[in-house]
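lol forgot to send this yesterday, sorry. struct tokens for the thing we talked abt
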């Protein structure tokens, strides 16, 4: 839901959507909800940089996005965990992302963070939780 800013001009009220302070990082496509240990996700994450207007920031500079798993060792996110945005999109399809070291079925989430310029470093977002099964 977007906030609105209202301005009273005499007898006329003007309402316009309030704009965000800067770009944000968002999961356009979440990782698969259910996964098996050491098996690549059927659905890889797809992230997008959204501009202050809420649309994909295709004109902004490219950022390096790195994925980390919110988990304690020995559980790890494996595969190619870095992707540079192109036209505001970071697509991890084909990166063979998978979770290793899981001993019992558990839920995890991924933290995606930007790096590079100050604008890119300010970007971060968590995925939804997903399940990794310890057995195939």
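and heres what i got for the seq, position by position
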């Amino acid at each position: 839901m977007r906030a609105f800013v209202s301005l009273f001009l005499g007898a006329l009220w003007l309402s316009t959507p309030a704009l965000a302070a800067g770009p944000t990082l968002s999961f356009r496509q979440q990782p698969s909800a259910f996964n098996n240990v050491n098996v690549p996700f059927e659905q890889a994450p797809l992230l997008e940089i959204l501009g202050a207007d809420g649309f994909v920031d295709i004109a902004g500079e490219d950022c390096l996005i790195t994925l980390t798993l919110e988990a304690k060792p020995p559980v790890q996110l494996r595969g190619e965990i870095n992707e540079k945005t192109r036209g505001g999109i970071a697509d991890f399809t084909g990166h063979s992302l998978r979770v290793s070291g899981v001993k019992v079925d558990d839920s995890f989430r991924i933290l995606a963070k930007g790096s590079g310029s100050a604008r890119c470093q300010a970007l971060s977002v968590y995925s939804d939780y997903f399940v990794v099964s310890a057995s195939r």
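The helical segments are 118-121. anyway ping me if u want another try
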